[in-house]
Amino acid sequence: MTRIALIGLTALSALALAGCAKKPQLNVTDAYIRYSPVPDNPSAAYFTVHGGDQEVSLIDVSTEVAIRTEMHESMKAGDMASMKRVTSVPIPARSIVKFEPGGLHVMLWNINPGLKPPKVVTLTFAFSNGERIKADAPLLAMGDAAPGGK
Ligand SMILES: [Cu+2]
């Protein structure tokens, strides 16, 4: 009896140690692109950035398959929705920063005409610490559900 209980405890403390030792990793998940079928209208990319153990800034999001990309922030003034360009988005340590409809997003102009939903595009995220992270983003048509059910 005593022996089994001891083994159980040892396994538990090993798990707890592993949890503490794991450093938060700067990472990007749940990326997708809301695809605009109208060539003159930009598409929009959304994703979730997970902060590492130090604050950094996201300074660029790009892809080889679009002519131009910009980070934007949507805002409301009364009934008017507008947006402005942002060139740097702080990603505090151990935080989650979401680019989502109605808030931060990345606009993409002139996506390669051979690419349409449900193709997948690789986005490159550049950070102020020199790190570059790539993440795959499916092209979603206007009615398609986003990852995470949005
Ligand atoms: Cu925009």
Task: Write up this protein.
The protein has about 150 residues and is mostly beta strands. It has a single domain (about 25-140), classed as PCu(A)C copper chaperone (Immunoglobulin-like), CATH 2.60.40. It has one helix and ten strands. The chain has one helix at about 1-20, and strands at about 25-35, 45-50, 55-60, 65-75, 80-85, 90, 95-100, 105-110, 120-125, 130-140. Strands 1, 2, 3, 4, 5, 6, 7, 8, 9 and 10 form a ten-stranded mixed sheet that branches. A hairpin with an 8-residue loop joins β1 (about 25-35) and β2. The radius of gyration is 20 Å and the shape is globular. The model has no long low-confidence stretch (mean pLDDT about 90). Bound molecules: copper (II) ion. The site of copper (II) ion (CU) has 4 residues, from β8. Copper (II) ion binds near residues 83 and 107.
